[in-house]
Amino acid sequence: MAPSHSLKVLEHFQISPSPSSAASTNSLALSCLDIPWLLCDPSQRLFFYDFPHPTLHFMNNILPSLKTSLSLTLHHFFPLAATLISPRLPHKPYIVVSEGDSVPFAVAESKLDFNELIGDHVKDVRELHPFVPKLSAARETTYGTCLGPLLALQITVFPNSGLCIGIQFNHVAADGVSINHFMKFWASVFRAGGDMSHLETSLPSHDRTVIKDPCQLESIYLKHVNDIWMSSSNQNLSSNDEPVLLDKVRATFVIGQQCIQRLKDWVTSRCKDRNNQAQQHFSTFAVTCAILWVNLGKLQQNGLDNDKMCYFYFLANCRNRLETNVPANYFGNCLAICQAALKKRELLGENGVAIAASAIGNKIKELEKGALLGAENWLSTYTKVVKEDNPITVAGSPKLRVYDTDFGWGRPKKSEVVHIDVSGSISLSESRDGGGGIEVGLALTRTEMEVFAAVFEQHLKQF
Prior knowledge:
Elements: E1 7-15, E2 26-29, E3 43-51, H1 55-76, E4 83-86, E5 94-97, E6 103-110, H2 114-117, E7 123-124, E8 139-140, E9 146-149, E10 151-158, E11 161-169, H3 176-191, H4 217-230, H5 242-245, E12 248-255, H6 257-275, H7 284-300, E13 309-317, E14 335-343, H8 344-347, H9 352-366, H10 378-388, E15 392-395, E16 414-417, H11 420-423, E17 426-430, E18 438-445, H12 446-460
Parallel strand pairs: 6-10, 13-15, 15-17
Antiparallel strand pairs: 1-6, 2-5, 3-11, 3-16, 4-5, 4-9, 7-12, 8-9, 10-11, 12-18, 13-14, 17-18
């Protein structure tokens, strides 16, 4: 049975960039690094804040400033209010920016227990879904061209306890770095009372020409995307996720800074013993992903041949890794798709965590040789792996610093990546206590979650 919700929608708005960002209709080309995300479902994140005030106080004293600051923010982040145009080949998809562009912005009220909702404990995945804003589905014109929105926002008030800012966006428009830039910019404008001369966050850069395409990635990716769209195996267009969620629960696991350091020391020691080489530096990301890969591998790989390959996928920000200078405030997608692969016997063996950390660390190190090396095969390889195996993927990153998104109510009490409920990814963020730890979000079946929690806790005690 689905969890009961007493969500009441109070207002619906359409917030436009102010003043208008486009005197007339303009088009914004997609870069070669935007195109792969045409195949990706929308991303969803929630930010929960303490807010010990009644709903009426929010509506009268907070909401007007939130709307104004959002309008001012969208003036600079105008692609988020625009429309994605996806014509049939040989024409290329693009973003069209027009007068009258706007973003849907809903305001709701919930009587659920705020503190219970933001807990790390196991809960039905569907508890969070009402707080995710509705992003209208793409619609097809008579000419076969799809028109799709790129962003939706919702604020839910929990009277006298808290509020939640929910965001759903199309990954084609922005990667995690860019969308977090948008959220922090909005928060900064709100805190400044709309005074744009006292902002703590830089303006975004929309110059897509900084993303070069020496390997003709655009044509390779467009053909692959078109093949997927035209394939009969991709006709899952109903977007009804309810059956997928029926037996799923989610939980947050926090790995403290001291535990991470012990894990780093253990991995370094084991790798040195195996290779008799100088110690390799292992990042927090590498060792955290390694222990998750091993423990999730135990759930997924039972009964498989020991030589069966196990795959781990993660994304790497390439703004400082390309041959051309891509500014840190670049707005769009600038990500490398990284794959680590091990045989089952290696991953689940005695030194599996050390071997996994080394495999992930080596992939990160390879980026120094060229972030786009092998990029022509990213989509085709990933598509093949997904069809034949069950790769583990990562959403989010501790480097995004989501808990620094402060609208003036303090740091978020909790941030959740909701789309992992369907995608099956694990979410990573920095620990909200600021102590250097890592938060891991997982959505599994109830049985899998019980097994994982027990095995994971026991495994951490070994380090």
